[in-house]
C-alpha cells in the first residue's frame, strides 16, 4: 500500500509538471487549467509541507538539545568554580584562626618572636626536620627556639639567607630540659624519632599519666614554662634505678604550617 501511494504521488507530480509546462508554452489557458494544476499539486504539496515541518521540528529539537548541553556545561563549570572558592575561603579561615592563636600565644607568653611558615621537609628519610621561610636576613640565628601556640616545636640548627632548618624535639637524640607541672620534678626529655621519653627520673618520683611536661628554662634554648607534651605511660621495672616515662609531644608536626621563632625570651 505504501508503495502504491508513493507511485501515485510521483505520477501526480509528473502530470502536474507536464501541465505546468504546457501552460507556460501557451498550450492551455484559462481557469480550467489553473484548477487542474491546483487539484493535481495539492497532494504533493501537502507531503512536502509535512516533510518540511518534520525537518523543521527535528532541527529545532537538535538546536534545543545543543543549547541544553551548553547550559549544562556552563552550570558544571560554575559549580566547580564555586567549590574551589569555598575551599579557598575555608582554607583562609583556618589559616586566619591559626594566625590568631599564634598572635594570642605571642601576647600571653611575653616573648619577642618572628612568625615563619613551614616551606619544606628534610630529604633525610629518618629525619623529622623541616625548613622555614626565615633566615639570617630576617635576624634568625642558629640555636633559636621554635614554638607554636600548642607548645614547643624544636630549635634552629642551620641558617641560610632566606630559610632555616629546624630540628624538632621528637628528632632522635634531641634533648630538652623539662619540669613536671605538678610534682615540679626536673628531667631531661629525649626525642625518639616518633615521640619522646624522660630520662633520669628516679623510681621514687611520683609521676602520673596525663601530667603536663613543661620547659624548665635551664638549657639556655627554650624559655621556661612552655608546654612540651603530656605523660602517656609510666613504667617501673624491677631492678632499674629510673622510671620509663613516655611523653606525647603537644605539637603534631604532620599538621604544622606556621611557627614562631623566639628571638628573645
Task: Provide the fold topology.
Elements: H1 2-25, H2 31-109, E1 112-121, E2 130-132, E3 145-148, E4 151-159, E5 164-168, E6 175-180, E7 186-191, E8 196-199, E9 212-215, E10 227-235, E11 244-249, E12 258-264
Antiparallel strand pairs: 1-2, 1-12, 2-5, 3-4, 3-12, 4-5, 6-7, 6-9, 7-8, 8-11, 9-10, 10-11
Helix pairs in contact: 1-2
> Structural class of the helix and strand makeup?
alpha+beta
Strand content: 25-35%
Order of helices and strands: HHEEEEEEEEEEEE
The total beta strand count reads 12
- Uncertain runs with pLDDT below 50, 5 residues or more? none
Q: What is the strand arrangement across the widest sheet?
A: 1-2-5-4-3-12
CATH class category of the domain at 175-252: Mainly Beta
Q: How many H/I helical runs?
A: 2
Mean pLDDT: 81
Architecture of the domain at 175-252 in CATH?
Answer: Beta Barrel
**Which radius of gyration do the C-alpha atoms yield?**
43 Å
CATH superfamily of the domain at 175-252: Rod shape-determining protein MreC, domain 2
The description of the largest β-sheet is:
6 strands, antiparallel, barrel
Q: State the share of residues found in helices, binned by percent.
A: 25-40%
What is the name of the CATH topology of the domain at 175-252? Thrombin, subunit H
**How would the global form be characterised?**
elongated
Distance between the termini: 105 Å
Please explain how this structure is put together.
The mean pLDDT is about 80. A hairpin with a 2-residue loop joins strand 3 and strand 4 (about 150-160). The chain has about 260 residues and is α+β, with helices and mostly antiparallel strands. Among the domains are: about 1-65, no CATH class; about 175-250, Thrombin, subunit H (Beta Barrel), CATH 2.40.10. Helix 1 crosses helix 2. The protein starts with a helix and ends with a strand. It has helices at about 1-25, 30-110, and strands spanning about 110-120, 130, 145-150, 150-160, 165-170, 175-180, 185-190, 195-200, 210-215, 225-235, 245-250, 260-265. It is about 40% helix and about 30% strand. The strands form 2 sheets. It has a 6-stranded antiparallel β-barrel.
Amino acid at each position: 500500500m505504501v508503495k502504491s501511494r508513493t507511485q501515485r504521488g510521483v505520477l501526480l507530480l509528473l502530470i502536474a509538471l507536464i501541465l505546468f509546462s504546457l501552460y507556460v508554452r501557451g498550450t492551455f489557458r484559462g481557469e480550467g487549467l489553473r484548477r487542474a494544476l491546483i487539484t493535481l499539486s495539492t497532494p504533493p504539496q501537502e507531503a512536502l509541507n509535512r516533510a518540511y515541518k518534520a525537518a523543521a521540528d527535528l532541527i529545532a529539537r537538535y538546536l534545543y538539545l545543543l543549547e541544553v548541553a551548553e547550559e549544562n556545561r556552563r552550570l558544571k563549570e560554575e559549580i566547580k568554580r564555586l567549590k574551589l572558592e569555598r575551599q579557598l575561603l575555608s582554607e583562609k579561615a583556618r589559616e586566619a584562626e591559626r594566625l590568631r592563636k599564634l598572635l594570642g600565644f605571642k601576647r600571653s607568653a611575653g616573648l619577642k618572636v618572628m612568625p615563619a611558615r613551614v616551606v619544606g621537609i628534610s630529604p633525610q628519610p629518618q629525619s623529622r626536620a623541616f625548613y622555614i621561610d626565615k633566615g639570617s636576613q630576617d635576624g634568625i640565628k642558629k640555636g633559636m627556639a621554635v614554638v607554636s601556640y600548642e607548645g614547643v616545636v624544636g630549635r634552629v640548627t642551620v641558617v641560610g639567607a632566606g630559610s632555616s632548618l629546624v630540628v624538632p624535639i621528637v628528632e632522635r637524640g634531641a634533648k630538652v630540659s623539662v619540669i613536671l607541672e605538678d610534682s615540679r620534678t626536673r628531667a631531661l626529655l629525649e626525642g625518639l624519632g616518633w615521640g619522646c621519653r624522660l630520662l633520669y627520673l628516679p623510681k621514687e618520683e611520683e609521676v602520673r599519666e596525663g601530667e603536663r611536661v613543661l620547659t624548665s628554662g635551664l638549657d639556655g634554648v627554650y624559655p621556661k614554662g612552655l608546654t612540651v607534651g603530656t605523660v602517656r605511660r609510666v613504667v617501673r621495672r624491677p631492678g632499674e634505678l629510673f622510671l620509663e616515662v613516655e611523653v606525647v609531644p603537644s605539637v603534631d608536626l604532620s599538621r604544622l604550617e606556621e611557627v614562631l621563632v623566639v628571638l628573645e625570651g
